[in-house]
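Issue 218. Parser rejects a valid record. Input:
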Amino acid sequence: MRATPSTEQVENAGVRVAESVDAATRQGLQGLQPVLEYRLLNFASFQLTVGGVVAAVLAVLIALLISMLLRRALVRYGKRRQNVNHAAIYAVSRVAHYLLLLVGVMVALRVAGVPIGEFAVFAGALGIGLGFGLREIFANFIGGLVLLFDQSLKVGDFIEIDADVRGTVRDINIRATRITTNDNIDIMVPNAQFMTGRVVNWTHRDVLRRMRVPFKVAYGVDKERVKKAALEAAAKVPFTLSMEGRHRPQVWLSDFGDGAVEYLLAVWLTEEATKRNAAIKAAYLWELDTAFKHHGIEIPLPQRDLHLRSVFGLRGDDAIALLRGVAPPATPATDAVPELSERERADLAGNDAREEVERPVRDATSDESSPAGQPPAGAAPASGKQP
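Output the parser choked on:
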């Protein structure tokens, strides 16, 4: 029968294994020590070694790792509490990232052996650089910090910079702010532009917005019938907030134009339609055209001087000969324009603009650090205007 090893024998074996591992570790470190102490740079008061570079890289990586874990923890905190200010959480996460990165760089310089106290000359050179080539970069950095703390513009807001740049704020970074348009195009706007330029914030304090859809009808059409048709069109669009009460649609006679009476259909939009202003207008125009045809309301054509260039399909000398009473030579028959079938007409009758508006908008705060973030509430605009 095999004897069971005693407790003392097991302890002795463990001690021997620990001593062997310790000896192997010391031997390995002694072998790496010449490599780690190899000098890459050697000045009067500054020596840069391989070990210092490795330690500096590890310090920066640890700072980035802590920053990533902290930002994920803040995102999870915001998800668990519905009444929390998501804009404030985003601002705290970005500022904490910058601070941890700064601390990591300072620690990296210290462990690398770089004398931080002798950076006064470098700071003076940096100031001169800011006055020349780095001025714009520094202005964008300060602008990003102002946006984070001021909250006049924050992640999730739908903004309009000019007629061509309109979309949702996705990120406020150290140099530029990323804006995603409704066509899924990312536009990087320098932060300094928000400090000096005019910005329209569509979702500043309230997501309810009113849109004015202009249209024209011919002279002589009864205005009450025009109003009835326009209200019927507004009722058919599912993005009209309400048909009664304070936010009901209104039809305004805005002007007596050249050859047409001009109206405005003023409608309040639902929350999901606020960020789809271009497609929303197209959806209302589609239903207005349908309602006008149903009520027999004529949309006027522009009045222009007519210059005759063809007569019954004839051009040039053939048309002139026909006007003079001379029979033109026979011309080969052309193919007739193909007619649309009923099925084709039904397939083409869909409202493309309405389908575009019904397409869901991506979550405004989804990025690498918070893949399932929640969009924050509204913020104050840099500047605003009546929509």
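Fixed in the parser; the record now loads. The longest helix spans residues 50-80.
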